Inverse folding.
């Protein structure tokens, strides 16, 4: 469902070249749940942003459901993100002026699926334990509550591919398990494809396989082409 | 070194009353390392903000090194924070326009201890693995690198009391251990007092005792007066 071929991305800072991604090959099948683990600073979020079409690689290609994204223009990329992808950001990226419910429903509004979204919201809020916090703005919520709003927002349209960047970092173990069960159930029952970055081995074990990342590359033994 | 007596704090949202803290009693001795664990939304960050004099309780009192903070004015609170406390925020709160080094040195500048701070910065950056990222701005850093900048900033003046709100949530286990060792060493060698909120039991085990939190209260069995 989502594939990366020889992805590379570097940053230039003054006269320093930082190779954030150095030739990444990754293939995730439909209805597969993959976990990515690796040291802080090794390139995981950079990879996730390229997979999520939020950023452009310097070289290499991303395929979504078999379709190459290399030559798509901005409108086409926006449509693809809107229709196929759900992204859970490591730092949440909630809109401060909107309350939790409004933040969560944003993708449903954009995709013109607001009514379905509102039904879905009830179910998700229950599963994630945030039903009584939907009127709060982000600055009136705890760190873990904000994280769960970001999670619900990514899932509101039941997208084909979910990219989760460290979705349980601010959650206690009971709440983490609830979140991971929602993801696992989505894969098993509704054929979601999930790519999850995590630093927590217990979380990674909910996935079908674990990919190890280091210095902008996937370990040779975990590569798939 | 830091004490809370019967602390309470509520929030009013429309006609809903939220009791974030409901009579918290806590006493941490000098050179003690205490971990606080509890469910997401249970009031831990609220407690940390009161202990750090960043917010005012509705009732109850905070004591820093035996001194009551209840009747201090704003200037006195600012001076106490500057001279005695180091705070690691759950969401980092870095200044976007400053690079890592400038962010870290901010408390040293404020306390007029810039030279000592620059020496200290070299050591801390080494211990936290961020030496080659000091020129980067926050948006040019990974989540875990930002977290380590926030940690270094809290420690730059060797404060008497360090309040760490989930300091390892974005770090892989190896880097987490490095951070926890810095805190542990600070307590053992330099007599720091550390209060750390964490969702990670492995991290909590670096502390001398673990306090369990729930629904705005400390478990009866973990209370100390
Ligand atoms: N805009 C930028 N300019 C320069 N360097 C950058 C920029 N963005 C990221 N980097 C660097 O690229 C590397 C990879 O960053 P990335 O955010 O992908 O790491 P990560 O694996 O997600 O880490 P973490 O586990 O801490 O979240 C880091 O070393 C980071 O400092
Ligand atoms: N400004 C506010 N207005 C209303 N409610 C608030 C406000 N700030 C926090 N709350 C509520 O107070 C409760 C405690 O929040 P707090 O941030 O202390 O939780 P926490 O234990 O740190 O959680 P986490 O582990 O998720 O970080 C939460 O239920 C939160 O929704
Ligand atoms: Mg990251
Ligand atoms: Mg918190």
């Amino acid at each position: 469902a989502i594939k990366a071929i020889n992805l590379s991305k570097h940053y230039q800072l003054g006269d320093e070249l930082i190779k954030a991604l150095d030739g990444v090959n990754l293939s995730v099948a439909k209805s597969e749940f993959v976990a990515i683990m690796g040291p802080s600073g090794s390139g995981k979020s950079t990879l996730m942003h390229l997979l999520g079409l939020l950023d452009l690689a310097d070289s290499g290609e991303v395929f979504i459901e078999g379709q190459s994204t290399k030559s798509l223009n901005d409108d086409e990329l926006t449509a693809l993100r809107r229709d196929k992808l759900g992204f859970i950001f490591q730092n949440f990226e909630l809109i401060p002026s909107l309350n939790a419910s409004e933040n969560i429903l944003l993708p449903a509004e954009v995709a013109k699926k607001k009514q379905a979204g509102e039904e879905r919201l009830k179910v998700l809020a229950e599963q994630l334990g945030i039903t009584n916090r939907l009127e709060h703005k982000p600055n009136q919520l705890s760190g873990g509550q904000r994280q769960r709003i970001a999670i619900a927002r990514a899932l509101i349209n039941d997208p084909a591919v979910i990219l989760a960047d460290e979705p349980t970092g601010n959650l206690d173990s009971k709440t983490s398990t609830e979140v991971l069960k929602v993801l696992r159930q989505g894969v098993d029952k509704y054929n979601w494809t999930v790519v999850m970055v995590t630093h927590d081995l217990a979380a990674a074990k909910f996935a079908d396989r674990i990919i190890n990342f280091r210095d902008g590359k996937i370990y040779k033994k975990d590569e798939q082409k």
